[in-house]
Input
Amino acid sequence: MPIHDLKAQIKQLPEQPGVYLYYDDSGATIYIGRARSLRDRVRSYLGARGTSPKTDALLDKVSRLEVIVTDSLVEALALESHLIKQRGPRFNILLRDDKNYPYLQLTTGESFPRVVVVRRVERDGHTYAGPFLPAALARKTMTLTHKLFGIRSCNEAINGRRGRACLEYDIKRCVAPCVDELCTQEQYAETVEHARLFLEGRNDELLGQLKRRMLAESEDLRYEAAAQTHDAVKTIETLLNRQQKMSTVRLGDRDAFGMKIGSAGGIIQVFQVRGGRVIERSELVADLPAGNELAVSETLEAAVQQFYQTRVPPPEVHVPVEVRDPGPLEAWLTQSAGRKVRLVVPKRGDKRRLLDLATRNAELAYRSRFSDEARAATVALEELRVVLGLSVLPRRIECFDISTLQGAETVGAMVVSEDGQLRPKEYRKYRLRGVGWGGVKRSPLGTLNRREKEANDKVEPVNLDGGKISGRLLDDYAAMREVVGRRYRRLMEEGGPLPELVVIDGGSGQLSSAYESFESLGLSNLVAIGLAKKEELVYSRDSSDPLILEVGSAALRLLQRLRDEAHRVALSYHRRSRRRRDFRSELQDIPGVGAVRRRALLTQLGSVANIRRASREELVPVVGAKAADAVLNHFATGRR
Output
């Protein structure tokens, strides 16, 4: 057994706390653990054969051992957490956030902080709030910090010496720290503190401060400022009344970890309680590690460590079972929070009911994620990840298609898949605003006039894919570039989430157009592929030759399903657009003639041709003098 080849090295290990690392033949780290006594812990592996399938698989792969000595077990735990996050060893239990929802960052590390949308939490001196579900809530909350408190939204370097405040100050969305006479750094710091309390959900404390400020402003006869503060108080009170109170104020600040461990993997639901209210729910997923088992206590310990790697723990953390060695974990959490933190297994009362609620949610999520249908989707996603060489599982995929008829009524569609399941509520449809057939601007109704056709004939073919390209395809490329650009510009403004994979219906030309949009937005790290019809060839940026997936493979079926759905949505939208165009009346283009007057004209005169020939005396009794003049001017202009 390979582990026995390390007996001499194990014998020399120190009897001190620290971290041990196992490596395989290729030099990859496959397991990281901590120990109170490195020699005793590592030596226990020599006789561990047969204790579990996971341990047996680990012992068969070990070829090298390294240790790092620390001063205490708490330091070893912190180092272990950091190394696991950095290296991702295959035999450790690795948990991931189920959703990539955005956070709000209050940049308290700056002299004049802002509120911005970010994708991850870092320990960088800034204040974070979230994640926000749904993602659009992050941007709405950020907007509230501008309206309620006047937090700045610009990227300017603030020194207080700006000549005058910008428009944001005039519309009362910024207190203008850029102008010292309007807002000093001390006054802005008070505004930032109010925003921080708001983002942290400490609304009772915030209301007390705002009411005191409102009273002071009123006593100083600054009635306009007092009115603004009064409006902020009313808005926050309204929000406070809408919040869901899932538990009593006796619960204070605490987190509850609910778990469901089964033969397919594990789900951990974390309910975060602040001020007696459940303000957030997070979900962690543990896939099956090598050896095909998950130990409850070990998984819980890994969940606590990894969850608080980037979060400040509350005074109490409620867990469903005892962890193996709670002392070092509590000490590490206490050190991280800067105050006492306890791991508690509640037995009764409100605390136990909250824990049971988290557990029921974890069980529900487990059944949803690890059903037969979900497992089949996971197989397809994993196969797609391997075939395309992706670093992560493409849990969220967005697919684009363009539909047009000779350049008329060109539209685009995007469909979304999460964990292999279509998400119709997140579909988007686009009416093209940019260039039309052959790169020239379309006429209002999407058809080509003679001048446009002549311009299209002069478009030079471009050599892509080794062949000549017609103006028709050039229009496809421009359309794809516009649709992809609009989608991800909007997504960046709203705070995501970004997909792990983008699928383009088309070949390398359409794929290149999509990447042009990515690069213009600073999103060149997004991964996209093109799926060509008929031959079902997969084009990627990293390969000059298309990839041929095995017919009937799960990965190809998933891509085909997405492509066909995008084509269905785009074609349906295109047909609707054509119907609207075909049934459009010329009378709709006349200013001042609405639906009622159009109906009256057609009822009285019978047809558009009769209306065109009608005199002013015939029109005035039907629609009035002003509308009659508009009708006459419209048709007179058309005749010229």
